[in-house]
Design brief:
The protein is of the alpha/beta class. It has 8 helices and 12 strands. 40% of the residues lie in helices and 22% in strands.
Length: 295
C-alpha cells in the first residue's frame, strides 16, 4: 500500500510540476512580482499532494523585506516553508549541481553560497542585499545543515555575515536595501505521522541528515503517510537593532530553541523555557516547573 501511495504521489508531482516550470521561467523574465508569488501557490499544491498539513502560528511580514532565520530538518522543509509565504532560500553551492533539484532551486531564485571560498561571502552579501532591496523574504538555514529533528544544531555565525556585515560595510549595505529590513525566526517541527505523535525513534523518517541518501529517504517518506507540521513564526525585529552578526545569530538561536522545545514537548506557548546553548553537541533546556529537557 505504501508503494502505491508513493508512486501515485510521485506521478502527481511530475504531472503538476513539469508543465508549470516554463510558466515560472517566463515569469522570471516578464513579472518579478509574479515570479516571487507563483512558487508559494505551487508549493501549497505540492503539500496537499504529499498529505502535509500545515499548522502555522504567526505570519511573515509582507510589507517590508524580511530575513527569515530557520532551523532545518529535511529536504521537505523547502516545499513546506514555500507554502507558508513567498520565499527564496540561501543554499550551499552544491545544490546548484543536483540534477532536477537545481533547476527547481534556480526557478525559485535561490541564493547559492560557496562555503569553500571566503571571498564568496561578499558576492553573497551583494545578492542578498539586492533581494532585500526588492522586498524579498529570504530564508537562511542557520545551522548550516539539517538535523535529525530531535534538536537544534548550533548556529554558524559565519552564515550571518552576508545578512549582517561588519559595521563599516553594513551601513552601505543597509542603505542599499532600505532601513525597513526585519528579521523573523521560523521554528519548524514535524509533529504527527498518520495522526500519531512522532517520537524520538521515528523522527528520522522525516529528518534527512548525515550521510542519508536523498532518493531512498524521499521514497520512504512518501510511502510513510500524511504528516502534520507546526511552523511558528516570530515577531519582526528590525535588522539594525542587532549589534553584529554574532548578536543576530545568538538571539535567533535562543528563540528557535525555545520554540522547538515547546512544540516537541507540547508545552503552551507562554511556558517559560530557559535554553542553554550546546556544549559538545548537547543543549539543556528547562521549563517552568523544574523539568529538564536535553536535546
Amino acid at each position: 500500500m505504501g508503494t502505491l501511495r508513493a508512486a501515485a504521489i510521485l506521478g502527481g508531482f511530475f504531472t503538476l510540476t513539469l508543465p508549470l516550470m516554463p510558466v515560472q521561467s517566463a515569469l522570471l523574465r516578464v513579472s518579478p512580482q509574479g515570479a516571487r508569488r507563483f512558487p508559494n501557490w505551487y508549493h501549497r499544491q505540492v503539500c496537499r499532494l504529499l498529505g502535509v498539513r500545515l499548522h502555522i502560528e504567526g505570519e511573515i511580514a509582507s510589507d517590508r523585506p524580511v530575513l527569515v532565520v530557520a532551523n532545518h530538518t529535511s529536504w521537505l522543509d523547502i516545499p513546506v516553508l514555500s507554502a507558508v509565504a513567498p520565499l527564496s532560500f540561501v543554499a550551499k553551492k552544491d545544490v546548484a549541481r543536483w540534477p532536477f533539484v537545481s533547476t527547481l532551486a534556480k526557478l525559485q531564485r535561490t541564493v547559492f553560497v560557496d562555503r569553500e571560498r571566503r571571498s564568496a561571502v561578499g558576492e553573497t552579501t551583494n545578492e542578498m542585499t539586492a533581494r532585500l532591496a526588492q522586498g524579498d523574504a529570504v530564508v537562511l538555514f542557520a545551522e548550516g545543515t539539517s538535523s535529525d529533528g530531535n534538536r537544534v544544531l548550533p548556529f554558524k555565525t559565519s552564515l550571518f555575515a552576508a545578512a549582517k556585515p561588519p559595521a563599516r560595510a553594513g551601513a552601505h549595505a543597509n542603505a542599499q536595501a532600505g532601513p525597513d529590513i526585519v528579521v523573523q525566526t521560523l521554528s519548524l517541527v514535524y509533529t504527527r505521522l498518520h495522526g500519531v505523535p512522532i517520537n524520538r525513534a521515528a523522527r528520522p523518517i522525516v529528518g534527512w541528515y548525515g550521510d542519508m541518501e536523498m532518493q531512498s529517504h524521499a521514497w520512504a517518506l512518501l510511502k510513510a503517510g500524511p504528516l502534520d507540521v507546526t511552523i511558528r513564526i516570530g515577531e519582526p525585529i528590525p535588522l539594525e537593532t542587532f549589534a553584529d552578526r554574532k548578536d543576530l545569530a545568538r538571539r535567533s538561536e535562543d528563540e528557535i530553541r525555545r520554540n522547538v522545545v515547546q512544540i516537541l514537548r507540547s508545552y503552551p506557548r507562554d511556558a517559560e523555557i530557559v535554553v542553554t546553548r550546546p556544549e559538545s553537541g548537547f543543549v539543556a533546556a528547562s521549563a517552568s516547573g523544574g523539568h529538564s529537557v536535553f536535546r
